[in-house]
Amino acid sequence: MSINWFPGHMAKARREVEENLKKVDVVIEILDARIPYSSHNPMMDDITQHKPRVVVLNKMDMADQAETDKWISHFKAEGKYPVAIVGRSHQIIGKIEPVAKAATEEVFERMESKGINKRAIRAMIIGIPNVGKSTVINNIAKKKIAKTGNTPGVTKAQQWIKAGKNMELLDTPGILWPKFEDETVGKKLSLTGAIKDSVVALDEVAIYGLRFLLQHHPEDINKFYNINADADTGVIELYESIGKSRGLKMSGNEINYEAVTNRVIYDIRNGKIGRYTFDKVSDFNDDSQ
Ligand SMILES: Nc1nc2c(ncn2[C@@H]2O[C@H](COP(=O)(O)OP(=O)(O)O)[C@@H](O)[C@H]2O)c(=O)[nH]1
Ligand SMILES: [Mg+2]
Question: Which positions bind GTP (predicted)?
């Protein structure tokens, strides 16, 4: 399965990002900490290869902390500057600014050696929809400037936002479409709410989520739904038991499978069952992110 979205939009988004890149010293790529591999658009690497990269693992409140720590080490080993945050929390600038400073140290040293006056670090935020770009920009700017939502939008008149003591941020994020050849990546994007519901069949998304949890966190899911399943439990049986325990029935007392699908996706997407990381760093260690 390969989803190409709208090639025209992709090309336009890419051009915009490339234009804006010329104006900044550092790129701040926002990823969903639950899926640091799947929420990364590989196109980023082509277009930003000459810029230092801060990698923000956002929504860390919904991810598995031990896995987040492993991803941080992984990105460091790749020469990137990672930091994990909760986009809505206080003091995110205090976390991002020092990392952006470390990432641009060489650039500024070079400028200084050429006698160029020191100025603020210029940065832009990039990421696929729904990773929290607007949330982060709004938080840093301390006023509502970036529209929060999942529609890729372009503002013509761009502004620099003062961000922290020594940083300026482009007010509009670079939006890249998620790109995936791999069906599992598509399911993870859907499971975390990064892509629209219609792109991947929802029952497959729910089943993927249930299988992941039964394999890695069976106690959590059994307790949460008050069921008794394991990695070998069949899909029908699983749906029946969740439907029964949650009272998701149709007239005639039959289990409403669609309702079970929707409930499972809702519970996982919103972190109701627990904090999970669906991309394990050990599965992607050979990939150049
Ligand atoms: N739990 C949690 N939710 C977040 C966090 N950051 C953003 N969100 C939510 O994620 C959704 C998408 O955020 P948004 O800023 O619109 O993403 P954008 O499309 O990248 O601009 C919104 O519902 C936010 O409230 C975070 O750190 N933790
Ligand atoms: Mg947004």
Answer: 58-61, 130-135, 174
